Amino acid sequence: MITLDQVRALSGHDVYGPDGDKIGSVGQVWEDGAGQPTWASVKTGLFGLHESLVPLDRADLDGDRLVLPFDKAKVKDAPNVDASHDEPLTQDDVERLYEYYGLSWQDSSRAYEAGVAAGNANYTGTSYDADRRQDENYGDGAMTRSEERLEAGTRREEAGRARLRKYVVTEQQQATIPVAREEVRLEREPITGANRDAAFAGPDLTESEHEVTLHAERPVVETETVPVERVRLGKETVTDEETVIGEVRKERIEADLPGEENRRFN
């Protein structure tokens, strides 16, 4: 349980969820009618422009961190409740927040009655802001002027995906190859002394046939699969510059001096 003394050091501290993920930073704290810290606003988003309210009854301090039992998504999606310094939390606001965070309505009722018993028509207690309390407690007559500073950063997110896909296409290729074939030709040779014995070796008159087998080559086509190259996906980081615009608030101080126009100090 966070005590009232610890509340005074909460403003501006980082807020974390149970998984160790940073949620945002503390904006301001509300106390109940008995002075017990009950609610805190958490600034979320890139520039801390969004504020969500969270209950403090199950929160804890870990060094300079405020640790909540809720994750970042739960806090960012909390009901939209006016978290300004000057507006109190109404009973309806509290009941909606209790229902959202899974707290009992009886606890909400008792807290509301405690606020009424302390003389507050709405359940709010007081909105505590560390800088304002310090200004009120200064005894040297000085006033602190604050301003917001624009902080720009980057967030890594998925911009697209690339993949390699392999598929088969069929195309025709042409090749010219030589083919050979055997042809018949008639050869005649006169009877000479060299072939005379072979010529008279057979019968004198007879009928006969003689065959010669002819051969020819024909083209055939076969395919062979061979690797030709390797392809892979590579990534490289390219840095561009973009201009971002945000609104920041500044406090101005005016002095009402006797016999002079209003004087403004930046």
UniProtKB/TrEMBL annotation:
Residues 145-157 have a biased composition (Basic and acidic residues). One of its GO terms (cellular component) is plasma membrane light-harvesting complex. Residues 123-157 are annotated as: Disordered. InterPro entries: Bac_photo_RC_H_C, DUF2382, PRC-brl_dom, PRC_barrel-like_sf, Stress_Response_Assoc. Residues 8-73 form the PRC-barrel domain. GO terms for biological process: photosynthesis, light reaction. Pfam families: DUF2382 (PF09557), PRC (PF05239). It comes from the Bacteria. Residues 143-254 form the DUF2382 domain. This is Conserved domain-containing protein. It comes from Paractinoplanes atraurantiacus.
